[in-house]
Design a protein that fits this description.
single chain; 138 residues; mainly alpha; 85% helix
């Protein structure tokens, strides 16, 4: 590459920066993480990265004893636990939001329509699971 090609490439990259920032912001908005979950997930990612780096150092140093692998394993496991816990918290929040929305919709129906909707939903869910109401298998 000559200098002009490099300058053109830098110009192209500078022009794409706003687009990339917009994409990152939209991903952040989709996640809608509370600050504690962001911190927990970030700490987990740092611990996982630290565990991986420690494991690479052990590999490059030729360390084979169990004690040398204790720290990378603890870092990696602790980080994974934090990331998984954050994911479970997000899942729980989505479940609660869905439950509230469904209950609000059901509350707007008369009792007969509500019973019909609940029956239809239950039958559909049992069909998806491959079971029939009452414990009989499909």
């Amino acid at each position: 590459m000559n200098i002009d090609e490099i300058k053109d490439r830098v110009t192209d990259l500078r022009e794409r920066v706003p687009e990339v920032r917009d994409r990152i912001d939209s991903w952040r908005d989709e996640l809608e993480l509370p600050e504690t979950q962001k911190t927990e997930t970030a700490a987990g990612a740092v611990l996982i990265g630290s565990g991986v780096v420690a494991a690479i150092i052990n590999l490059l140093g030729g360390k084979r004893d169990a004690w040398a692998w204790f720290l990378p394993a603890i870092l990696f496991t602790g980080g994974a636990a934090l990331v998984i816990a954050g994911g479970l918290e997000r899942r729980e929040a989505r479940i609660e939001a869905a439950e509230e929305a469904v209950l609000a919709e059901l509350d707007s129906l008369d009792p007969i329509a509500r019973a019909k909707v609940l029956k239809e939903v239950a039958e559909e869910q049992f069909a998806r699971l491959g079971a029939r109401p009452g414990g009989a298998e499909a």
